[in-house]
Amino acid sequence: MICDNCHERPASVVVTQSKNGKTEERHLCDVCAAHFQPFQGDFGGDPLGIQQFLQNWFAGPGVFQNAQPQVESGPECQNCGLTFRRFIERGKFGCPECYSAFRKELPEVFNKVQGGHTKHEGKVPASYSGRIAAERKIKDLRRQMKEAINQEDFEHAAQLRDEVRELERSLEEGGGHDVVD
């Protein structure tokens, strides 16, 4: 497929934009994609590497004429000396201690990178799906039971306790397939 913008080079980047409920898809080459507003920067041999993605995300579009993100330097890793700003520029940590050094800033990074989906549910093999569902139901029932106890609704808490026991008994017997709603 040829670039929708220059009509010269092969398209290697697909840009999908939604405005006012209308979705538009454009196929761009590396050169045109680098000049496209949301993807400013030098793509080189790696079209939209993680460091470029993080820079664009934190600094916003149109900032990279000087290739300097608008992120404060933030904390610094005591082990390797890497600053949070440098991490955003590079897109990778300097050492394992960086995870601890940037602990407060990382949830925001992961939230933006993952589009708000930071809890991994994953796929479950069909043979385990009933068991996993039962375990999740038990966890939810225990949470509800704590809330009922905190609200001093002991009758409801006792009903929830009984449901938990029934599910646990079913799991111990190798069940869990038909127990969950």
From TrEMBL:
Which controlled-vocabulary keywords does the entry list?
Coiled coil, Kinase, Transferase
Locate the UVR domain: which residues? 135-170
Decide whether keyword Phosphoprotein is in the record.
no
Q: InterPro entries, from UniProt?
A: UVR_dom (IPR001943), UVR_dom_sf (IPR036876), YacH (IPR025542)
Coiled-coil positions are 131-170
Q: Does the record carry Coiled coil as a key word?
A: yes
The alphabetized list of GO BP terms reads:
stress response to cadmium ion; stress response to copper ion
Q: Which SUPFAM superfamilies match?
A: C-terminal UvrC-binding domain of UvrB (SSF46600)
Alphabetized GO MF terms: cadmium ion binding; cobalt ion binding; copper ion binding; kinase activity; zinc ion binding
- Cross-referenced PROSITE patterns, in alphabetical order? UVR
Please identify the protein, giving its name as recorded.
Protein-arginine kinase activator protein McsA
- Please name the source species: Bhargavaea ginsengi
